[in-house]
Amino acid sequence: MTAIFEPWNETRGAEIIAEHADQEGATLVILHALQEAFGYVPEAAIPMVAQALNLSRAEVHGVFTFYHDFRHKPAGRHVLKLCRAEACQAAGGDALAARAEAKLGVSLGNTTADDRVTLEPIYCLGLCATAPSAMLDGRLIGRLDQKRLDALVAEAQR
Amino acid sequence: MSMRLYVSRDAGAVAVGADEVALALEQAAAKRGVAIEIIRTGSRGMYWLEPLVEVATPQGRIAFGPVTETDVPSLLDALASNTPHLLRLGATEEIPWLKRQTRLTFARCGVIDPRSLDDYRAHGGYKGFERALSLGPDAILNEVTASGLRGRGGAGFPTGIKWKTVAQAKADRKFIVCNADEGDSGTFADRMIMEGDPFLVIEGMTIAGLTVRASKGYIYIRSEYPHAVEAMNAAIAAARRGGYLGTDIGGSKQAFDLEVRVGAGAYVCGEETSLLESLEGRRGIVRAKPPLPAHHGLFGKPTVINNVLSFAAVPFILAEGAKAYADFGMGRSRGTMPIQLAGNIRYGGLFETAFGVTLGEFVDDIGGGTFTGRPVRAVQVGGPLGAYFPRALFDTPFDYEAFAARDGLIGHGGIVVFDDSVDMRRQARFAMEFCAIESCGKCTPCRIGSTRGVETIEKIIRGERVHENLALVEDLCNTMKFGSLCALGGFTPYPVLSALKHFREDFVPAPTTLQAAE
Q1: Nearest C-alpha in B relative to A61
Q2: B437 shares its domain with B408
Q3: Which residue of chain B comes nearest to A49, CA vs CA?
Q4: CA angle B438, B444, B449 (to 5 degrees)
Q5: Chain B neighbors of A88, CB-CB under 8 A
Q6: 0.85 surpassed by complex ipTM
């Protein structure tokens, strides 16, 4: 299932920020909420967050760029994450990652030219006893093999 | 009377089709007009058998697994007619892999409905809390200290001492923080317990709150664990409804409440001071210690920060007494440790047992060797910052000191098995690369050292001045080990140096026969 995101809208963004601004240490909470609504954190939202939390723009930008999760532009229609950590490496994850890159024609961390699929590395989904593992649009897949990977890639490309 | 079935809702089971199996069971039963009730539990931790389906019988639960959607019709036939089935494993509790364990922390995981406070209470839940209420802070501290419990996140610091420091600190507010940023590859115990027995974590944190007189707690869960976030939020809401969280917990007139905060994909936030920074809404930059979080923690206030498994061990200690816990284990490692068997392993999963079992027993005997059937060559213990062990060191017992004596660490109890196709140069390179990706950037040895480490190991892989570069890597590791601010830079040398030491043949090419010059 593809996630449906709203297009960026300043009023809606301000609402989301106001909803969480009263919490202690709210920066991450707000950035998560913005990304959940819009699929990324629009640059225009950064000064708005700063103002709401009485922080400098640089501070909020610093938080935004520190964490791997936050996107500065929308991802592809589907996001395929492949676990690249040791337990999955031990179970043949390297070859599967190379196969996914070849099939999609992009390297890990990139989006296909038609904006359909974003392929990303992830460092551990905690499914280490059923490795290798992957996540397609939030759905978990364990015991990945060539056949299952090919099916996932085909599903993502649809 | 309807037939009661149990199917796990654990992320590890769902990833291999547990949802599909549960749905197929419902549909097939409806079609046949058979009344069934499916309880979605946590996982028993036997992941090679997932999706595991259990059925309630007067003699206890009978297990079947691994079940696929296509097995469902024949499974229902067998259950209806009480005839044998190929996937029948017998009584769940009698499965040797489960029976050999000592499940203190994970006693309820896979057994109860993690959404049900009543089920938790019916299985001994909140007994520890009730005893804690009657004991009062000083006596709770004595119990936790006497149990010998040490921080299960990896550092192994005595939990009782940490709590006592916070209890004695004077402040207008104190906090309890649960570190659920389980980023180590090969570990999933925190995830399993949060998904399978979330009230246990809540109970443990509540007892900590009573002890140090803190009224607010945070559970910082990594964003890679959406199922755990959902399970904890649901349990917190249920505990509030049941009067176990809020302004008057369990009729004690004391207030304690919890909030889940979600990380954002930064491994370093598993380091406690970095986690506190992140909770405060900042970049996850490590703080220099001292001051300790116990004195100057979240929002500058005295804070108990412990791993999920540390909090989860506390209710048993309070309910059954410190001695019941401390009677298990060896040396200064008391109680049980949930060991996680992962990677290229035949019987992967969670095995909780007293300290003292050897690495070889876990890998060969309990784990059954590799999934691929090839010989085991290397085993990484304790996550990305843990050492690689060769077979020659398989007699090392699980004990904080025994692993340290062999230049390793037990960390969070993860064991990742590699077969003989592993190239240890690549694993050493990856350790440095991971450190470079995840470094918070505050201290130079970690930030720069890891990148130089990747470059130097790449030169070795290309065969450039191998001996010189090996010496350079060793020197660099020394700098990182002693010069880094936290365990990320400080422990990355463990996998690198252990690979160099125990698997030297992968780094130094075998001498080739000299060719006569033309």
Answers
A1: B283
A2: no
A3: B281
A4: 65
A5: 185, 343
A6: yes
